[in-house]
Design brief:
about 450 residues; alpha+beta; about 40% helix
Length: about 450
Amino acid sequence: MKLKKLLVLVAAMSLMLSITACGSKNNTANGGNNVPAPTTENTPENTTEPAPADTALVPEEGAELLIWDSKDEIKFTNEIVKRFEEKYGVKVKIEEVAPTDQVGRLTTDGPSGLAADVIITPHDKMGEAANSGLVLANDVFAEETTKNNTEASIIASTYDGVLYGYPRAAETYALFYNKSLVPTPPTSFEEVIEFAKTFNDTKKKKYALMWEAGNMYYNYPFIATGGGYLFGDNGTNKDDIGVAKDGAIEGLKVFQSLNAILPIKAGDINPDIKRGLFGTGDIAMDINGPWEVAGYKEVLGDNLAIAPIPTINGKTAISFSGMKIYVVNSFTKYPNASKLFAEFASSKEAQLLLNETVGSVPTNLEALESDQIKNDPIVSGFAVQAANSQPMPSIPEIGNTWAPMGAALTEIWNNNADPKATMDNALKQITDLNNGVAAE
């Protein structure tokens, strides 16, 4: 565990420098010992351009591709498809399918030949797809992908030691704040509590800070910052569950103490309630993700700002990060063309185009260092927090954690339950689910 925590800190500091200075650095993760070894097979050498070398791989004759993407990001996909068709002469058709639904569709439509040749998925669903043999390894471009992207995105794109994904964008959550109410954001939760003493008015439903207190995703910093974790070995070891470690318990005591400034039942906090209160200025701060930026910016304008999550017990808060990644359908008739598209659509230029189009946070190291990213205070704010993040595990057992952890957090928050006993119980429940033990 000491080595793991050291590697976490080294990785976090490295990518932080990539955002604030001019060097190529790596992203934070829960260690660094599961990054696949680079391969030199069919990979261009001595180039800073992530696009593939034509001599390494060429599309199959007559290749035609189907790509799935979300309605919200179709503008980007239309443009990147146009550029790909011009470069490679491969016709590409686009269908609108939400990324969260694509692995499910691939499961049913892949064997029948009806699925997209390249899909986009949140990385935590990739393990399911890889475990079922639905996606091809990122083999030809493994070295370029690993070299050009953050460490966290590479870990997130890897399952069972094999690189499958082509990172497209990073997502994590951070501290949204209303500058008209909070001119200088708090750097610690102690400062949040002090601010709440002058801002809160519970009778008027006015609170300094609100977030989803019963959702493990948003509360992972209270577990991980002090050394806890969900699964060990970069999220790959289902038998090493770290939610009841001493560091996690100390962080959860801070979590529990915040109920004093947000005396609301966990089940009564949801995104719609937060949107309404944040928009009217009745909450000054919100812990949330980039998907809320457009709506909040429409209401608050230039008063919307982003800062890192406040420190916990004096330590930099470690959030969960999610990656959107391209993966290639293992049933594709055109694996060469599909791999070329996945590489092309995840390059530095493509990621900057995606940022320009929808405000996404790149994973490409050079893109993160660009003026386009550094000069955008919203995106760069998320990028700073992403430097202190760990990718959600992508092993199938991640599905066994949400209900037990949500129930445990709710007990600690609503009923002032003992964090240690509650987490020990959650750990047992997750272990039993992982091992297929029926509930008593």
